[in-house]
């Protein structure tokens, strides 16, 4: 075991976050406020979020993706539909996403149901991506076994020759929208007495509750 791992038991940090008193009635208003603050405070990769899905065996899996849009009270991101997360979402559309902003000692956990966005929306976003990313979306058989890195480079070279100008969107690549039913805002507080504010969707109305830290 490394020396740094051995030190973890003695690593005791305290928190000094702002309180979550007088929150707005809409979780999306609070999310927007917190997200803007994360960008202003130069949190690293403010739009990075951990997406967790559940496979056929019941085993959860998580990975980091980028939030690309919050629209119609839905959280939108893009990926390979044939990847592990895409395969799992096809079987079980329920998912959770988590934002973590350590500078501000904040987390946001969002649970809900995921669905594919329209092909037109996916086309529009794909066309805005750098050419290298577009080719990569075709070249990567995401989550499948790869013999070596040269195999991937060869595919990219072949695709670059195949599409000398415009690169079309692969049919297996596009956007998902997570429609939330619960959003929890976590704010670090002194003595581990953290604020946990939960918005739950009940009969088309967002209800607020609080949880013990």
> Judging from the principal axes of the Cα atoms, what is the shape?
globular
Order of helices and strands: HHEEEEHEEHHHEEE
Our count of helices gives: 6
| Total strands | 9
Helical content band: 25-40%
Rg value: 20 Å
Class from secondary-structure proportions:
alpha+beta
| Full CATH superfamily name of the domain at 24-127 and 172-210 | Electron Transport, Fmn-binding Protein, Chain A
Low-confidence stretches: none
Question: What is the name of the CATH class of the domain at 24-127 and 172-210?
Answer: Mainly Beta
Q: Give the integer mean of the pLDDT values.
A: 93
Strand portion: 25-35%
Specify the CATH architecture of the domain at 24-127 and 172-210. Roll
Biggest beta sheet summary: 9 strands, antiparallel
Q: What is the distance, rounded to the nearest whole angstrom, between the alpha carbons of the first and last residues?
A: 31 Å
Here the CATH topology of the domain at 24-127 and 172-210 equals Pnp Oxidase, Chain A
């Amino acid at each position: 075991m490394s020396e740094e791992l051995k030190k973890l038991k003695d690593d005791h940090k305290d928190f000094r976050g702002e309180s979550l008193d007088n929150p707005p009635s809409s979780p999306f208003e609070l999310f927007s406020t917190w997200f803007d603050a994360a960008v202003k405070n130069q949190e690293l990769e403010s739009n990075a979020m951990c997406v967790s899905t559940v496979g056929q065996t019941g085993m959860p899996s998580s990975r980091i993706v980028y939030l690309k849009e919050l629209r119609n009270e839905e959280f939108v991101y893009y990926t390979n539909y044939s990847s592990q997360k895409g395969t799992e979402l096809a079987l079980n559309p329920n998912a959770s996403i988590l934002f973590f902003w350590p500078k501000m000692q904040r987390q946001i956990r969002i649970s809900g149901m995921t669905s594919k966005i329209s092909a037109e929306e996916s086309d529009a976003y794909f066309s805005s991506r750098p050419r290298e990313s577009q080719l990569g979306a075709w070249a990567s058989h995401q989550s499948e076994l790869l013999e070596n890195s040269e195999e991937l480079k060869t595919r990219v070279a072949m695709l670059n020759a195949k599409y000398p100008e415009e690169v079309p969107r692969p049919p297996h690549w596009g956007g998902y929208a997570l429609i939330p039913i619960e959003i929890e805002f976590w704010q670090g507080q002194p003595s581990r007495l953290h604020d946990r504010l939960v918005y739950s969707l009940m009969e088309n109305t967002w209800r607020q509750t609080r949880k013990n830290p």
